[in-house]
Amino acid sequence: MPGSRVDERVVARIWEGSSFDREALRLLELDLVFRGLPSDAGGPDYQEAILSTAKGGLLHGDVEFHVRSADWYRHRHHLDPAYNQVVLHVVWESDGEEIRRQDGRGVPTLALRRCVTGFGTAEVGNDHLFAHPCGPSLSALHGSTLRDRIEEAGIARLGSRAERFASDFLAISPDQTAYSALMEAMGFASNREAFRALAECVPFGWLMSQPAGLRAEVLLDAAGLGPPGRIAPPARLKPDVWRLARLRPGNHPIRRLVAISVLLERFRPSLADALAQLVLETQKPRELGRALTVCVGGVPVLGQGRADEIVVSVVLPLASACQPGRAEPALLFSRYPSPPSTRWTRTMVEMMRDSGHGFAARSAVQHQGLHAIYLDHCRYTNRHGCSVCRGVAPGAEDNALSSALQAG
């Protein structure tokens, strides 16, 4: 049992290990189906959780942890739209605060102090409340078949992103398309929308017409993350669009905007053409990633791991769109090593491990395949079945959820 010194890490461990009496949750007319995935950036602590209601419905959303319920207001979550998907507030001790989101909706609070069971003995993270409906079909697959289908999904993702970029070329210029895609890639899951909006506030053509030494200053001003610059940007974002909680210093938007300004100067005058030409001229795959790393004053503001992710998700499909019919982008994609894992790829690897497959993504094709499969098919809230196991018909997820709830 936890002692008197309780912090949010204790609350998180209890939630992860399901080390609490679920009757306490049922008193709130809720039950737990899927605990969700830990957030690896700003915003709520757990995302994509599933709760069942006493009326037989399902709630999909986020879970936020605190020591006391009043911390919700002390941390100003009631003013932050990023917390408008929270469906459960989990605390060590309730002090009677009624919790409301920024959109005005109430959030039930689960207090753990009087309902902890077996804390410290459960193996955290291994209590699967809801087996994924693809599990039995995945178990029946041969390992080589599983690998082939994951790689098929990765190759398809490269093609679909290239098609998206080619379509964007018709609506906006190739350079604005490349600029927007790079900006979006800088944002991770938590700040993608903010970076995309910033690319619209400060368009590529206007930004490149300004002195190179002032571009970072202009971007920071427009983002609301720096003081007013010497040149006023065309528009500004509201500062509250950024999700900064729990971001590692290296992932902070300020560093990423400095990196963008360096890359724009490095690949001028045409960003799209320069990136496409870089792909055509590169002989060794990792040279692409090294060409995108940025170090300012001895401080790395865009490291190799993030550069590798940008190469496989932006640069290679962009080059395919700029140079249709050329084999170099697909060839480099097939030879590129895997970027660092994400919470989505880790979830897929864990699901496959539970199905008896010791799979690990070793190539960019496999990494992107896992990413695509999770986002397009294997989310618990998805309705389209799994393109890898090909064994779950639309609607089967709901049947599996119903069976899990009845068993619980």
What do you see in this structure?
This protein has about 400 residues and is an alpha+beta fold. Among the domains are: about 10-110, no CATH class; about 160-325. It has 17 helices and ten strands. Strands 1, 2, 3, 4, 5 and 8 form a six-stranded mixed sheet that branches. Strand 9 and strand 10 (about 300) form a beta hairpin. Helix 9 (about 215-225) packs antiparallel against helix 10 (about 255-265), helix 11 crosses helix 13 (about 305-320) and helix 13 packs antiparallel against helix 14. The longest helix has 29 residues, at about 145-170. About 40% of the residues are buried. The model is unreliable at about 120-130 and about 390-408 (pLDDT under 50).
Stretches with pLDDT under 50, minimum 5 residues? 120-128, 392-408
Distance separating the two termini: 25 Å
Order of helices and strands: HHEEEEHEEEEHHHHHHHHHEEHHHHH
- How large a portion of the residues is in β-strands, by DSSP E? 5-15%
- Which secondary-structure class do the elements indicate? alpha+beta
